[in-house]
Specification:
Layout lengths: L2 H5 L2 E2 L3 H5 L8 E6 L5 E6 L4 E9 L2 E9 L5 H16 L4 H9 L4 H14 L4 H15 L12 H14 L11
Parallel strand pairs: 1-2
Antiparallel strand pairs: 2-3, 3-4, 4-5
């Protein structure tokens, strides 16, 4: 987009001004905040409005999503943009961190890795059957969670909930 076209899309963001932004007939249009350099608002043809930070990061232009308009106030979006600009100034790339989290293994992937390794080490069939039943019963509901989200506190609460369900003292996976 040329600089002349861009000039009409610069305004001091406010709740009222963002609410009054027109919806484009096709595609998306970016508006730029006059008070915080790099803060933009993307308006789509569906009417969605989203805050982005647009900056050159490590020699390339990057557009990093901040939040939907309405999830954060204009001042909160400016503060978040300032924080991200600070990170960029220290050499970090906020986009890489977000993408990196998507590449982290899930509980299901860790389970499959363990199961493959256990089979390679000739674990007994009874042991594998018992462990698979326990996984199916207790852990499988967490299959899509990233391993990095499992903190000690989360595991402790989960373990307590399992203990409260099965107070018989017998293994819940085995036949009575």
């Amino acid at each position: 987009m040329g600089r002349q076209q861009d000039e009409g899309r610069r305004l001091a963001f406010s709740k009222a001004r963002l609410a009054a932004l027109p919806t484009p007939a096709k595609g998306r249009v970016y508006y730029h905040d006059e008070k915080q350099q790099g803060l933009t608002c993307c308006v789509t043809e569906a009417g969605s409005k989203t805050y982005y930070l647009y900056r050159w990061v490590q020699g390339r232009p990057e557009r990093v999503r901040i939040a939907k308009v309405g999830e954060l106030s204009v001042e909160q979006a400016r503060d978040e943009a300032k924080r991200m600009v600070g990170e960029i100034a220290t050499g970090k790339n906020p986009q890489v961190e977000r993408i990196g989290k998507r590449g982290e293994p899930t509980v299901a992937e860790a389970w499959q890795h363990w199961l493959t390794t256990a089979k390679l080490h000739n674990r007994r069939k009874n042991y594998l059957d018992h462990t698979t039943k326990a996984y199916e019963l207790y852990v499988k509901p967490w299959a899509n969670r990233r391993l990095s989200t499992l903190t000690a506190d989360v595991i402790t609460r989960w373990h307590s909930s399992i203990a409260s369900k099965s107070l018989s003292g017998k293994c819940c996976c085995c036949k009575p």
